[in-house]
Amino acid sequence: MSSRERILGRVRRALADVPGDEAPVARDYLREHGQRSAARTVDLLAENLADYRALVHRCAQGELPELIAGLLSAHGSTSVVVPHGLPKEWSRAVDADLVQDRAASTARELDRVDSVVTGCAVAVAETGTIVLDGSPDQGRRRITLVPDHHICVVRVPDQVVASVPLALERLDPARPLTWISGPSATSDIELDRVEGVHGPRTLEVVLVEG
């Protein structure tokens, strides 16, 4: 018997006397804090992303390819990993080697890639969080955790919600969800901040309209 089977067996035994018609959990908490227009919700997202030290850019749909190319050039990126479902027009101006997201890619191979460009599933304004769910325009989780530079495109206002409860309504819990609030960072007991430990050292979020 595996460890997994032993743990699940203990859970089943612990729940054996729990009635199947147990009352549902009350969810009468606030859905969001205050009322905002869609534009103000996007502004709040930008403010909170910046507060977490993400670099925030805003552009129109037609300006996106040139902006992505400029950000990669400014970062000195010569190789960029892209998920297979990333819109082709997003990367058409990129002057770098495009590396496709592959199941066979190892962490060592991805560590040699300079940047990654993805879309997102949803963005949460009140917490400055972007959520990835492994959809075709986001790819496997590993491609957003190993490269040191992540450019994430958020379509506004469609992909922006005010709060975590509203975000959860849009997400499938069976998918591999990655919640990102700013660049990867940690602090030791002396509060010395180190970035890039658990993911990208630099997170750039592009809020694209239209």
Shape: globular
Helicity, in percent?
Answer: 10-25%
Proportion of residues in extended strands: 15-25%
Fill in the CATH topology: Rossmann fold
> Strand-and-helix sequence, N→C?
HHEHEEHEEEEEHEEEE
Oligomer: single chain
Q: Major β-sheet, in short?
A: 6 strands, parallel
Structural class: alpha/beta
CATH class: Alpha Beta
Q: What is the topology, as strand order, of the major beta sheet?
A: 1-12-7-4-2-3
CATH architecture: 3-Layer(aba) Sandwich
CATH superfamily: NagB/RpiA/CoA transferase-like
Write a structural description.
- The chain is α/β, with parallel strands linked by helices and 210 residues long.
- It has one domain: Rossmann fold.
- 24% of the residues lie in helices and 25% in strands.
- It is built from 5 helices and 12 strands.
- A 6-stranded parallel sheet has the order 1-12-7-4-2-3, with helices on both faces.
- The longest helix is centred in the N-terminal third of the chain and has 14 residues.
- The chain is globular, with a radius of gyration of 20 Å.
Key structural traits:
12 strands; 5 helices; Rossmann fold; alpha/beta
Write the SSE topology:
Blueprint: H1 3-14, H2 38-51, E1 55-60, H3 64-75, E2 79-82, E3 97-100, H4 107-111, E4 115-118, E5 122-124, E6 129-132, E7 149-156, E8 160-161, H5 164-170, E9 178-180, E10 185-187, E11 193-195, E12 202-209
Parallel strand pairs: 1-12, 2-3, 2-4, 4-7, 5-8, 7-12
Antiparallel strand pairs: 5-6, 6-9, 10-11
Protein name: Lactate utilization protein C
InterPro entries: FTHF_cligase-like_sf (IPR024185), LUD_dom (IPR003741), NagB/RpiA_transferase-like (IPR037171)
Pfam families: LUD_dom (PF02589)
